[in-house]
From TrEMBL:
Residues 225-377 form the DHHA2 domain. One of its GO terms (biological process) is polyphosphate catabolic process. It comes from Eremothecium cymbalariae (strain CBS 270.75 / DBVPG 7215 / KCTC 17166 / NRRL Y-17582). PANTHER family: BNIP - RELATED (PTHR12112), EG:152A3.5 PROTEIN (FBGN0003116_PN PROTEIN) (PTHR12112:SF39). The keyword Manganese applies. Pfam families: DHH, DHHA2. GO terms for molecular function: exopolyphosphatase activity; metal ion binding. This is DHHA2 domain-containing protein.
Length: 380
C-alpha cells in the first residue's frame, strides 16, 4: 500500500496509463475544472488517492484539466504540490488523456469542482460516473452516475475540498484519514484559498473540515502557509495572455440563434493595475487576440481583489465585432441588476468593444455570474 501522494503518483506514472486499464479499453479519471486552480487540483488528486486507499482494484487517474505547459502559470498550485514532495513530472494532464482517444480508449470520469463537461474534457470524457461540486447544479449526468453507483454531491460550500473531505470521512473514517497529512495539506490549501483564510463564503461544512485539519496538522503555521500561497498566486510578472489564461474557463451556451461561446477569466487585480503594467494598447491588442485564439463570441474578465480588508469587484466585457457587441449589450441588460453593475470609464479614451463596470454585488463571484449569463443567453 502506498503511504503518500508522492508514492501514489509515482506508482501511477510507472505503471503507464495503458497498464492501469486491467486489460480493458476503459480508463477512469478524476478531473477538476478547466481553471485548474488549487481547489480543482487538490480535489482531483485527493479523491484519486483516497479511492485507491479504499480499494486498490479500482484505480482512478487524477487529471489536471489544462495542457501541461500551462501549469507554470499557476505558481500557487506548483508550490502546494512541491510542499508535499510531488514531482511535477508525475502529474497527468488532459492533453495526455486526449491522445489516448486515438487508440479507441473509453474514458470515464468523476468530476470535482464542476458538474458538467466543458472545453477539451467535453471531447475526451465518454461517461461521467460521479460528481462532487459546490457550483450551481446543471442537472446533468444523473442517469450515468446512478448506473455507476457513483457519488453525486452538489451543494454549497466555500471550497469543493470540504465536500470531498466529508465524502471520504464518511467512507473511510477519521482514523484512516488522520495519518494522511499530505492529503490534509491539499485540502487545507484549497479551503484557505477559496475562503480567503476562512473569512469569505464559509458554509457549515468548511469550519468542520478546518477543525479536522487543525487536529491532523498540529504544529503547522496555517497563517504563514496561507500568506505564502497568496503571494505565489499573484499575477505580477505575467504577460497579458498569461493573466487571461491563469484562471480561465470557457462555456458554450445555446440560444435561439445558435451556440454562444463565452470565455471567462478570473483576475485577482483591478483592470487599472493591468493597464499600468502593460498599457492600454497592449491590453486591447492581447485581449482581442485571445478572443480569436479561443474562437469566442465574448470574453468576460471577472476582477476581484481586497484592499484594506475591503472586497472589490469589476466586470469587463471584451468583443471584437458588431454582432458580439450587440449580444453583449443584451446580456448586460439582463444581468446588470442582479450584479449591481455600475458603468465606469477605466480605459481612456474609450475603445469600441470593451465595456467596463464596477460590480457592487460583492457576493457574486464567477460561480454565480456564469449561471446568470447562461440564463440570459438562453432567453435571447
Amino acid at each position: 500500500m502506498v503511504k503518500s501522494i508522492c508514492s501514489f503518483m509515482t506508482l501511477l506514472r510507472d505503471a503507464s496509463l495503458k497498464g492501469l486499464m486491467n486489460g480493458t479499453k476503459i480508463i477512469k479519471i478524476v478531473c477538476g475544472n478547466e481553471s485548474a486552480d488549487i481547489d480543482s487540483v487538490a480535489c482531483a488528486i485527493a479523491y484519486a488517492y483516497l479511492s485507491y486507499d479504499n480499494d486498490q482494484r479500482d484505480t482512478y487517474i487524477p487529471v489536471i484539466n489544462i495542457p501541461r505547459e500551462d501549469l507554470k502559470l499557476r505558481r500557487d498550485v506548483v508550490f502546494m504540490l512541491e510542499s508535499i514532495s510531488v514531482s511535477l513530472d508525475s502529474l497527468f494532464f488532459i492533453d495526455e488523456i486526449r491522445k489516448m482517444k486515438l487508440d479507441n480508449i473509453r474514458v470515464e470520469s468523476v468530476l470535482v469542482d464542476h458538474n458538467d463537461l466543458t472545453g477539451v474534457a467535453r471531447e475526451v470524457v465518454d461517461n461521467v460516473i460521479g460528481i462532487i461540486d459546490h457550483h450551481e447544479d446543471n442537472n446533468m449526468h444523473k442517469e450515468s452516475i446512478k448506473r455507476a453507483n457513483g457519488p453525486r454531491i452538489i451543494e454549497p460550500a466555500g471550497s469543493c475540498s470540504s465536500l470531498v473531505f466529508n465524502y471520504w470521512l464518511n467512507n473511510l473514517g477519521i482514523q484512516r484519514l488522520k495519518p494522511l497529512t499530505d492529503i490534509s495539506k491539499l485540502f487545507l490549501s484549497a479551503l484557505l484559498m477559496d475562503t480567503v483564510n476562512m473569512k469569505y463564503k464559509v458554509t457549515k461544512l468548511d469550519p468542520e473540515a478546518y477543525s479536522n485539519y487543525v487536529d491532523f496538522l498540529q504544529g503547522m503555521d496555517f497563517e504563514h502557509y496561507y500568506e505564502t500561497l497568496v503571494a505565489k498566486k499573484d499575477i505580477d510578472g505575467l504577460p497579458i495572455e498569461g493573466i487571461l489564461a491563469k484562471d480561465y474557463k470557457q462555456f458554450s451556451f445555446s440560444s435561439h440563434h445558435g451556440v454562444v461561446k463565452v470565455g471567462t477569466s478570473s483576475i485577482p487585480r483591478p483592470l487599472q493595475w493591468i493597464l499600468e503594467q502593460h498599457g492600454n494598447d497592449e491590453f486591447v491588442l492581447q485581449s482581442r487576440k485571445y478572443i480569436i485564439k479561443k474562437n469566442l463570441d465574448l470574453l468576460l474578465l471577472v476582477h476581484h481583489w481586497i484592499s484594506a480588508d475591503v472586497h472589490y469587484r469589476q466586470f469587463v466585457v471584451v468583443v471584437d465585432n458588431d454582432k458580439s457587441m450587440e449580444l453583449s449589450a443584451k446580456i448586460i441588460q439582463a444581468i446588470k441588476d442582479e450584479l449591481q453593475l455600475e458603468k465606469v470609464e477605466i480605459i481612456v479614451p474609450l475603445v469600441d468593444g470593451i465595456l467596463t463596470y464596477n460590480q457592487l454585488a460583492l457576493n457574486k463571484s464567477r460561480k454565480t455570474v456564469v449561471p446568470l449569463i447562461r440564463k440570459a443567453v438562453e432567453e435571447l
